[in-house]
Amino acid sequence: MKIPDLQMALEGRFDDHHALMCQLHLAHIDHLEAMITKLDAQVEQMMEPFRAARDLLTTIPGIGPLAAAAVICETGADVRQYFPGSAHLASWAGMCPANNESAGRHRPARRRNGNEHLQSLLVECAWAAVRHPGYLKSLYHRHVMKWGGYRSKLAKKKAIVVVAHAMIVIIWHVLATGRPCDELGEDYFDRRQDPGREIRRLTAKLEAVSGRQVILQAAA
């Protein structure tokens, strides 16, 4: 906002009543901040027995200390006690796609019902994770392009659910093994790609577009 606009916004009357209201609002804000500080201190105290698990979870991209504490509150620190595998945890959280199959035909289906608190937390963490270079950002990009590109809101929503599912799987492995997250790298999918298969795919695509036979020769 420019200075003339600020000057116009401040024009008018400001009497003792307005001063009192401003004072009350500021006092209310101070009170809320004091309550938040007190609650944060209590949460920190209650998380002391789970500090090691929380620190492990913060090694996962997109998960900070508060998000890690929230995950532990929902799943517990010893995930193997209630969830034998990562698939069990993902299903309980409602991050697995439902299977809608009839007469051998697969149809799109919504996610399963699950822990709503954990679902929203995972999606929020997924949005944070895809802002930084790494495996999760590459996974997001791969699925956005698969479902229509970045101009499609639906493609981005579906892709972020895929990332959230990947994160709950990583969470299980981190808590179950007691080892920090192993960043696979942004080039993970490129490294897994079979060069021969990719060459055949691109050659077939070029032949289909050009209508000519493509013969490859070794580079000099």
How would the blueprint of this fold be written?
Elements: H1 3-10, H2 16-46, H3 51-57, H4 65-75, H5 86-93, E1 100-102, E2 105-107, H6 116-129, H7 135-146, H8 153-177, H9 188-192, H10 195-210
Antiparallel strand pairs: 1-2
Describe the structure.
The structure is a single chain. By secondary structure, the protein is mainly alpha-helical. It has one domain (29-98, 109-192). It is built from 10 helices and 2 strands, in the order H-H-H-H-H-E-E-H-H-H-H-H. The protein has helices at 3-10, 16-46, 51-57, 65-75, 86-93, 116-129, 135-146, 153-177, 188-192, 195-210, and strands spanning 100-102, 105-107. It has a two-stranded antiparallel ribbon. Helix 4 (65-75) packs antiparallel against helix 6. It is flat and about 85 Å long. The protein starts with a helix and ends in a 10-residue tail after the last helix.
